[in-house]
Amino acid sequence: MARFILIPACFVMIMILTAAKGSSQNNGQFPLSTDIGSPQIKGATNFDQVSQAYTLSGGGVNMWANKDQFHFASLKMNGNFILTTFCHFEGRGVNPHRKMGLIVRENSGAGSRYADAAVHGDGLASLQFRSVENDLTGEIKASVNMPDVIQLERKGDTIIMRCAKSGYPLLETGRIALAFKTPVYAGLFICSHDTGVVEKAIFHNFRIDVPAGDQIDGYQHPSASRLELLDVATGNRKVIYTTTGHIEAPNWSHDGKFLIYNSGGLLYKFPLTSKIPEKINTGEIVNINNDHGLSFNGKMLAISSTAKMADGSSGSMVYTVPLSGGIPKAITPKAPSYWHGWSPDGKRLVYCAERNVDYDVWGIPSGGGEEVQLTKSKGLDDGPEYSTDGRWIYFNSVRSGMMKIWRMRPDGSSPEQVSFGPYHDWFAHLSPDGKQMVYVSYPATVPANSHPHNQRVLLQKQQINSSEQKVLAYIYGGQGTMNVPSWSPDGKMVAFVSFTYGDPNF
Predict the structure, then answer these.
(1) I need a surface site. Which of 166, 314, 315, 380 has the fewest CB within 10 A?
(2) For each successive 10 residues of the chain (506 residues), what is the average pLDDT?
(3) Checking DSSP bridges between strand 53-58 and strand 44-48, what pairing results, if any?
């Protein structure tokens, strides 16, 4: 279920200070590509527009002791931020102590104060830092060997390193107190650890996320947005649209030519060729939230929107409208009701609704009629979606004590838990072939019945005939990231939205 978000007139200030963004096309979004400490061999930064991956090459005798030599792709930043990337060395390499990773540095001097999340050629990962300029480097070794996903967060005067092997959740492996003067230089680095050798490293899925401040409410102060596509087989992400406005919950059209998302109470069609949003006509229904989606034949849209009731109250109602636009037809008799699924034959809708002071899964004919309660367990049941063969309804429920994915027969019988593990799992979406699902997972520190904005969440994949989970993406998002069906019709990609209170181009 969702709440409608008002876009405020004053947007949170973007934290990136460098104005000349992307001064060299090959540098991607990094204005600065430079060598620190004057290494013998000059390094380089190259950005591939198609794969959205960075290749860094560089030499340098070391990043250790009281001075450093390496190649650095960076930009200036203020405040809090989270750097995340997938990374690997290209080729077998020469020196086992070569290093690549993420770094925050106070200045461009060889003995600058800094902290980095470094991966070495021999597999060692560590949080390295120099607390005093021109002093010796310190180190906290990670428990994960040869991670290919690393994260470095600046949170006030605290620096946090997390890392993982792709497919697994990030683990915190180091934390230090280090108060930098601001602004700092942040970005990617490589060091060959051999003065006469050049090493290369590939960085993909690189993101800079500026998290919300402690007092920032995602509804009252919504974030900037990145509309992204993710290749389910490889895990590679591509940003296809950025905006300082707030968008949510992309659906994929059945011909694969466009996406549909909500923003500011309206629905928009987003053609994948022109990449220019087009408003969908929904008449006077202009308080649409992020619970919307297409029928299996691709001709009709179900939407949820706040409306006034006959008794003067207001709440979310479910409507249907042709994909081409028009006057929506009210389907549910009561509020609040939040749509989540069509039956494959198009005859029924399922939704989350509050009745009798409890949220449950309900069903109703797609043309309107009598609603039927499908779940009766105490606590929140949400996010219902039919399997592609119509034999099951998948939903998320807190009945086990955590929010987990369950499934039941279309009449509500035979409920069974299908996701497990230490996270709260929300909004399962079935692939077109019905063999796998993706869903958003929240950390256990978030209340089980809540799916808020502004969280470090996981996008996870699970085969229908297995309980094993695989992490596809590490996202700053939550509410609105992937509330509704978002698979491409060929089953190769999913669409989602990530959020930031900084520059959305990262």
Answers:
(1) 314
(2) 46 35 65 96 96 97 95 97 98 94 97 98 98 97 97 98 98 98 95 95 98 91 97 97 98 97 98 98 96 97 90 89 97 96 98 96 98 97 98 98 98 98 98 98 97 97 97 98 97 98 92
(3) antiparallel
* Rounded distance between C-alpha atoms, residue 471 and residue 459, angstroms: 6
Q: Which residues pair with 437 in a beta bridge?
A: 430, 462
Altogether, the residues listed in the chain come to a count of 506
* Cis status, amide bond into 8, omega within 30 of 0: no
Q: What are phi and psi of 5, to 5 degrees?
A: -110, 130
> Domain residue spans in the chain?
25-209, 286-496
Could you tell me which CATH number the domain at 286-496 has?
A: 2.120.10.30
Report how far apart, in Å, the C-alpha atoms of 43 and of each of 29, 36, 194, 200 are. Answer: 17, 10, 13, 9
User: Per CATH, the architecture of 25-209 is what?
Assistant: Sandwich (2.60)
- 134, two tokens: 């021109």
Closest CA relative to residue 227, chosen from 491, 482, 485, 7? 482
301 within 8 A of 269, measured Cβ to Cβ: no
